[in-house]
Amino acid sequence: MNIAFVGLGVMGYPMAGHLQRAGHAVTVYNRTAAKSAQWVDQFGGRSATTPALASAGADLVCCCVGNDDDVRSVMYTQDGILESLSRGAVLVDHTTASAELARELYAAASARGIGFLDAPVSGGQAGAENGQLTIMVGGDDAVFAAALPALEVYSRCARLLGPSGSGQLAKMVNQICIAGVVQGLAEGLAFADKSGLDSVAVVEVISQGAAQSWQMVNRYQTMLAGEYDHGFAVDWMRKDLGMVLAEAQQMELKLPLTEMVDGFYAEVQQLGGGRWDTSSLLQRMLAGSQTKDLS
To answer: Widest CA span of the chain, in angstroms?
Structure first.
């Protein structure tokens, strides 16, 4: 397929690379042109100076930017994606954004004869680089079927979960679950340390049982070393949890644990950790002391 990829951040850059390596003809756009040039040097393909130029003539356009405002900025302007896509094309938004925006874009795309899927991803930078992402999708069956061969290039699971907005709602479920797990892991590691246990040995044992999680297996060593310059940033998690809590409020649903952990992440931001990995909840518990090796 002729594919445009808009947004070459830590996720989009390798995702677009997988598509080019799989034999698709990929044209990329990034707000910072140097990043587009770097991508072309590494993978081949082409770059464009605007989202509209990247999308012109594309069968499929994938977008992976920061938030609702960023998505709108590459969709609706004169140089935006919607102005250049032809009828019958498919637009896939991989941004973690609001369900409201997903429904809005579905309506705008449908009015132009364009298929739209909201398709946020999970798996982090490593998942993107290894082509092992999980993709939660909202939209129509036929549009999903058309996009699936491309989505499978960089995912291990891509599933249609319902009508437009369902992908973003499913991603909110994902973030709710992660927030609680990471806080539990932070408390467990702090407890192990205060108890005088060998934290590494404890994790090696309990990770073989019911306490095991992706966060435990992939983050305990860096947490114990006080290393957080990697992974999914606290600033982005707070953005996501803010959307979760706003959606829950509309549902009149109380999420006390999520609200509490969101507050803890606000404290991490106050410590200067806005760009730290979300596992830095442990560092919050050690606030007032120097970064400490708990191993």
So the answer is: 65
